[in-house]
Fold this sequence. Notes:
CATH class: Alpha Beta
Helix content: 40-55%
Radius of gyration: 13 Å
Oligomer: single chain
Organism: Pyrolobus fumarii (strain DSM 11204 / 1A)
InterPro entries: Prot-tyrosine_phosphatase-like, Tyr_Pase_dom
Protein name: Tyrosine specific protein phosphatases domain-containing protein
Amino acid sequence: MVRDIVRVETRLGVVYGGPCVEVLEYVDAPVIILEEEYCDVEPNTYCYPVEDFSVEPWVNVKGAARKALELLQREGRVAICCAGGCGRTGTVASAVIAVAEGISCHDAIRVYSEKRGLECPETDEQRRAVCRLTRELEKLVATAVALS
Length: 148
């Protein structure tokens, strides 16, 4: 595997994260793309562009996390990417890892950062967003379980 690609085993499957240029080349999984430049380049990709060093637009961050969790549950693997594979990717991937593993948002950030070898996500806003996303995804999962 390429050095900048993160691979995290969870109870629901494998979550990959990294720079789009590497993820699209080397990872065999459905891909959530957070960098507009790489949107619509291949089949089995889902585009939710998010501003660099940001969590805007929030609807795309939330949509990316929901789709990533759905794909992880259905396919057993999902990849998430942006230009550098740390800020936007770390935000979405950490929330998905938290829910998939049943761990806190802070522990999920630590897992992703250790695997990436960098402090990810990059900004305070993105780190806060991991916890917000985790809560929203947990509610979504709880509702789905209650309805089944």
